[in-house]
Every structure is written in C-alpha cells, then in structure tokens.
Amino acid sequence: MPDAFVAAPIILAAVLALAAHAKWGRRDSLVSAIRQLRLPDALHAPVRQLPPVEAVLAVLLVITPSPPLLAAVAALTLALMLAYTAVVARGLRMTPRPSCGCFGAVGAPITVETLVRNIVLTLLAIAALAWALDDHTVPTTVRNGGVQAWALLLVLAAAAAVTRWVVLERTGQPRPAAPAPPTQAAPTQALPTEDDDEYLRQPIPPALLLGEGEPISLRHLASRRAQLLIILTCGCGDNARIVAERERWAEQMPQIDVRLVSTMTPERTEATFAGQGGWLYDHEGVATQALGAGGQVCAVLLGADGMLAGGPVSGPDEIRQFVREIQETLADVPVPTLTRGGEEIPVGSLAPAALVFVSEGCAACQPVKDNADEVARYLQGHGVTLALVYRSEPEDAPHAPELTFVDADGTVSATYGVGGTPAAVHIGTGGAPQSPIVVGADAVQDLLRSVAR
C-alpha cells in the first residue's frame, strides 16, 4: 500500500486533537447535546470522557511504532467515527436540528454537510486501519522518507477540505444582530397592537431549548401562549435582580409566560441563582444567537402565531423598559377568567393548580368527576388547587361545588389549547402552563399524580 496513506492517520489525529481541545472544558455541554438528540441518559457519564479518549487516540495514531498496535488504535478510531456518524444521521431526522457538539463550542446545528464530513472521516479511519494492517506506521514511514511529493499534496488537499468543514461550522452560526428598538410588540394571538410599522416581524427561528432534560423548539414553546424569554449568560452585574423580578412580571402579565433561559450549564445556573427554578437551557447559546440576541442579559418576545413579537433588547434597564411597554400593550387584553358561583376568578389566581376540563354526558369524564373530592384533598395537602372546568354550570355534579368552575365562552380552553374532554394542564404563577395539555382519563390521572410529587 502506498506511503501516501500516511495522510489518513495524520488527518484523523489532527481532527481528534481539535475536537478534544474544543470539548475539554465543556463536558456539560456534551450532556446537553445528548439530551437534545434524545439519546439514553445512560450515555451522560460516557460522553464526559470523550475529550481524553479523543486526545489519546490522536497521539497514538501518530506515535505508535508497531503496525499491529496501530491497527488496534485505528480500529477504535473507526468505531468512534461510526458512532459519531450514526448520531449525526439521527440528528438530521429531527426538526429543528440540534447541535452535535462534535467540536464543543465550535459546533453548529447538524446539516447534511456535517454528515458528509463524518462519512469522509470514517473512510479515513478505514484507510488508516488498512494501511496499518499492511505493516505501516507513521514513525516508520517518516523515518524511511517514503512520502512522495504527490502524497504531500494529497495530505494538504485533504487537510484543507476537513479544515473547511470545521471552519464553516464555526462561521456558519447565526451572528447576533443589533438589538431592535424596544418598541411595542407587533400583533400576536395574545398581544394585539396597532403599531405594525414600528417593528419588522420575523419568523421564530427553528432553534431548541432544554426544559427538564427534554428538548423543546422555540416555536412549540410559543404555540399556545406568547413567551417573554429573559436570557442570561452569566451571574454578573444586575442579572440577579432581573431574575428576582421575573415572578412579579409573571403575576402582572398573566396573558403571557415569562421564562428564564440560561446559556450556562444547569449546575452552574442553579449554583449562581440558588432557589430559582423553572429554567430553560440554551445549549452553547445557539438559540440566543439565532434570535439575534446578545449581552450578559437580554430579552425577546415570541408571539403565539409563530413570529417574533418584540426585541431582542439587551441590558437590565432596557429589559425593564421593554417589560413596561409590553404591560402597556397588554392593558387592553382581557385576562382569562373562570366563574364559580357567579364570581369571576382570574385563572392565574388559582395557581399552582391543576385545571381539569370535563363536560356533562362525557363517559370518559365520569371517573375523573367521581374521584374529584378525594383528589382535591390530596392535592391540597401538596399546595395545589384542583379546578374542574365545565363549559356550563353542571346540573348534578358528583363532587363538591367549590371544585366547579365554568368557562362559558371557551376562552380558557382556547388559551391552553384544549380540544376535547377530559383534558388537564398544570399551571403555575400567572397561569403559565407547567405541563403540556393531556387528553384522556388515564393521561389526566397520570398528570394529577405527577403534580403532587
């Protein structure tokens, strides 16, 4: 086999060394990538060891003096490249596509070019293995001076191609755009305004966040209610005060959800902002960059119609002004309310609560209604309110009257995307949903059990 195949282990070593260096201080981000790719939790511990494994393989590919030992190293490298290629192929089938974390912070969302790159690296690993089995090693080839001019050109060409892929991944990430003026939000299902000309609306980008270990797209997050995202990249400056103000803002704006997003790891975020839960996490800041946001703390408003509705704005003072303008816009937007005994009750005032949507004449709803009193006492012991929501006042309900709430005009059902009964949703501060809407008696019972945990 020609000595020109020395290019294969050398290129692989260079790529593995770069990957190990990029990942070394960002092992938590590898776990985030595993979660985005919906891979088993059992992989969390092994992926943390990838940087040293890649570094060792990079060194051994170059310095191993024995062909049998080099063959073993090349075989391990091939196995690693096959695994990476399988992961990338899996990511290509997801919408939106996550980042593979292949080059740590350098990595961008997976593309077809990412798959092509990994296939080329896999072929290089096969070539390195075949070359080693043909009784070759890098030290022996270099020492014997058998590398011809064309082989050097091959090395340079292949190295340039691989470098191009890596560099394109780095530069291909969306760059933060200049923050838009903190004007009033343009129209959404939740935030109407007449100032259409003041804000050029754009579609919500197809980016992912992590919530409770599960990936969720920005568009899905805002599919039922407008979302005000407060994005923090560190615990410095006035950020702690902004975090502390979130709960008050959520109470003042029950028509929308106010959420905290961190580009830091969950461990660092929880240590920095102790006692503050409900975080969403932005792996490597990819979603933040896709939104055109930047700075130590920034905010953006996602409309419930799939479009950006305001921002991004950066800085504590700018965010507070942004919130004031949203509050002014929401002043004329009715707060979702239920009635109980003729009294109107804002949904947010019931929180934390489990809203269970039922109807008369619904056979599947009957077990839920029959057990409502017992479930209500159980949930009350955990600080959670149970509300059975009807479309009209029931004539003969088999549960305590104080559990009966009426959504006569269907506004509350529409707010949470209820399409049938029985259905349920867990709500928190300001009426913000803490769970997806679930439909069916079994799913409702499962949700009620989970709420009390």
TrEMBL record:
- Where in or outside the cell? Membrane
TM ranges are 69-89, 115-133, 145-167
Single biological process term from Gene Ontology = methylamine metabolic process
Which residues belong to any copy of the Methylamine utilisation protein MauE domain? Answer: 6-129
Location, primary (coarse class): membrane
What's in the GO CC field? membrane
Q: Does the keyword Magnesium apply?
A: no
Q: What are the start and end residues of every segment in region (Disordered)?
A: 173-197
Pfam assignment, any one:
MauE
Q: What is this protein called?
A: Methylamine utilization protein MauE
Q: What is the lineage of its organism?
A: Bacteria, Bacillati, Actinomycetota, Actinomycetes, Micrococcales
